[in-house]
Amino acid sequence: MGKSSLINRLARRNHLARVGRTPGKTTLANLYRLDKGGYFLDLPGYGYMKRDKATAAQARRLATAFVEHFPGLKRILLMVDVRRGVLDSDRDALDWLRGIGSPVTILVSKIDLEPRRTVREIQAEWERLVSETQQQSPGPLTVAISSRTGEGIDTLSRLVAQDLYGFPNS
């Protein structure tokens, strides 16, 4: 389960974001208005996209335009698949996103599909990578999540609430 499943979990709605049968199909930006104010912007993936090169390049240009020109981003959530380890394309995305100036939190997803030790090792590697160049920001550098089991969703919900509404992150 990927970004769309996560959005549905966070919104506590089953069909807000369309969940496809195969991953990597998102090519458009999807903007969700939140009930209590603020927006959640779902952008096409940088690492894994199951589209032709021209469509993938166009989707990446769209994502770049949104992120670099959308004022007031409170936080950028970069979702990575724990089964893939730390990919060069994910590192590249992190390097680019850190230059935007908004805090970046890595969402280590699909943790229900790997042993706990592997999840801890991948999460620790991401925390090291984020902390190398990012100034300390409120909230965790990484959150391990499973859209299927719901693990980590409460932590992520509190982080989003803190960023959007100023609720305590505890």
Strand content: 5-15%
Distance between the termini: 26 Å
CATH homologous superfamily annotation: P-loop containing nucleotide triphosphate hydrolases
Q: Helix share of residues?
A: 40-55%
- Number of helical runs? 5
Average pLDDT metric: 80
Q: What's the oligomerization state?
A: single chain
Calculate Rg over CA atoms: 15 Å
- The count of strands amounts to 5
Q: What is the CATH class name?
A: Alpha Beta
Report strand order across the widest sheet: 3-4-5
- Examine the coordinates and then state which fold CATH places here, giving the name of the CATH topology: Rossmann fold
Give the CATH architecture.
Answer: 3-Layer(aba) Sandwich
Uncertain residue segments:
none
Task: Write down the overall geometry.
Answer: globular
The structural class is alpha/beta
Secondary-structure element string: HEEHEHEHEH
**How many separate structural domains?**
1
Let me know the largest β-sheet.
3 strands, parallel
